[in-house]
């Protein structure tokens, strides 16, 4: 099938096949995935969720609260959530971490469970990218 200037090839998966599996590269516009994958690989209690929200979605108070509630509800499935930080845009000021979501779990194990479950899932038709975040930076709100 021709998609733009690229050719898309689709084939049926062979159940039980022993063919080598090549690594899959996910391309998200505006996100340098190799940098994301290199940072945040050591498990911590803080999970950073990327590609879930846009700064525009965080401006409206009601929409912001809906997003916060959705994230808290979903993340609590994997263990107690201690806190959630979603940096919001401020007119005329560049806010560090705006568009990222930071979730603090009670334990590293709970954070790992959430990371495994949420990475690659869809939220608002966007594929979620996750990484662990440095707890000291989180405490300083250095996003």
From TrEMBL:
GO molecular function list: RNA binding
Domain of life: Eukaryota
Keywords: mRNA processing, mRNA splicing, RNA-binding
InterPro entries per UniProt: Nucleotide-bd_a/b_plait_sf (IPR012677), RBD_domain_sf (IPR035979), RRM_dom (IPR000504)
GO biological process: mRNA processing; RNA splicing
UniProt keyword Protease, yes or no: no
Identification of the protein by name: RRM domain-containing protein
